[in-house]
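Annotated sample (chain length 403).
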Amino acid sequence: MKILFYRYGNICESDVVEVFHRFGIEVYEDTLEIEEKHASPERKARHLADCIVECGKTGKIDLLFSMNFFPYVSEFCERLGILYVCWSVDCPVLELFSSTIRNSCNRIFLFDQVQYQRIYPFHPEGVFYMPLCTNIYRWEKELLSVTEEEQRKYGRDISFVGSLYHEKSPLTMLNGQTGLPEYLQGYVKGLAEAQLLIYGSNFLEEMVTPELISGLKRAFPDFYYLNDSMINTDPFVVANYYLGMLVSEMERVRVLNALARWESVTVYTRSDVSFLKNVDCREGITTHVQMPRIFRLSKINLNITMKGIQSGLPLRIWDVLGCGGFLLTNYQAEIPSYFEIGRDLECYESVEDCVAKARYYLRHEDIRMEIAQNGYQKVKMMHTYEHRVASILKMLFSDWTEE
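Output written by the structure step:
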C-alpha cells in the first residue's frame, strides 16, 4: 500500500507516520507547510500537485492522508480520483462545513460524537467516528531516561499543562472596549456564567440570537466565516470561536485559582497568567520530552476540556493516561464509553467538586496510584495509534491485514 501524507506540523502526525511504517506501508510526505509556514495557497497547490506526480511515478497512490480536513486537498483528490482520508483531531473545525465535504473521494474520521452527528448527514458514505488515542511506546521510551533531578523538578502536587485561552478569546475583555452594546455584554456574561455551571453538555449555540451575531460582526470586522459553507455557520462561529473561547478561559482560571487556595498548583503555559493567584506559573514545555515527565511525575494531572469539544475526549486525556499519570478531568459525555470513572481516572462536575477530589486524592496515594496504573493499562491494551490506524484501514479496505 502507498500513502501520500499531507503534513502541516500537527503533533499527531509523526505518531501516525510511525504506525504506517510499522504496518509495512510505503509513505511519501508533503511537508511544505512545515518548511514554509507562510506559503501562499498557490504555492501549496503547486507543491501538492508535484508531490502527487512524484509519488505516482512508482505506482498507484492508494490514498492521500492528513490530520484534519483541508478543502483544497479534497478538491485535488476529487479531480484526480484519489481517495482522501483525514482524521480530525481538533474541535471546533469550521472547514467541516465546506461544500467540499460532500466530495465522493472523502473518508473523514471525527473524534467528537456531537461533531460527527452534525457532519455525518452531509456525506453519510464518507464520514465516520474515530476517537483519539496515545503513543504508549513513545512515552515508555522517553520515560526510561528520567533523572533524579527531573523527579525533583517535575514532582508536583497538581499540574496543568496548556493554554489559558486569554490570547485566543476575542471576548475576554468585556469592559466596553469590545464594541458590543451594554445589553449584549450583559447577555454574553450571563450565558458564560450559566454554561460554567453545566458539565457534560454545551448549550451555547442554542442561545445565540440574531442580535448577538450582528453585534459581534460589527465589533469584529474579522468575524470568522467560510466562503463555500453549506449552511449558515454564524451561530456555530459565535458559540464556538467567541463564546466557547471565553467560557474556556473563565473556567480554567477559576478552577486553577480555586485549587490554589488549598493546594500547591503548577501551571505550564505560554498564556498570560496575570489572572492566576497563588499559582506556580512556569513557561510552556516541549510536547515529546518535558510533557511526559510532568504527566508521570505529578501527583495529579488536571484536564479542563475546551468548550468546542462538546462530548469527545481531548488528546490530553489519552496522553496523561498513556504516560502513567493520574488524571482528574472535567466530565465529558463520552468518557464512560472508554473508561470507568473512579477506577481508570477521576472526573469532576463543578469547581467545588474538583477541589474536593483533588484534596482527597493528594491524601490517598495508594488509591491514586492504583487508578493511574489502571488507566495506563487500559490505554495500552485498547487505545494506541496501532489500534486506531488499524481500525481506519479495516474500515477503508475490508481485506486489509497487518503485515
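Annotation: Residues 110 and 129 are 5 Å apart (CA to CA).
Annotation: The mean pLDDT is 94.
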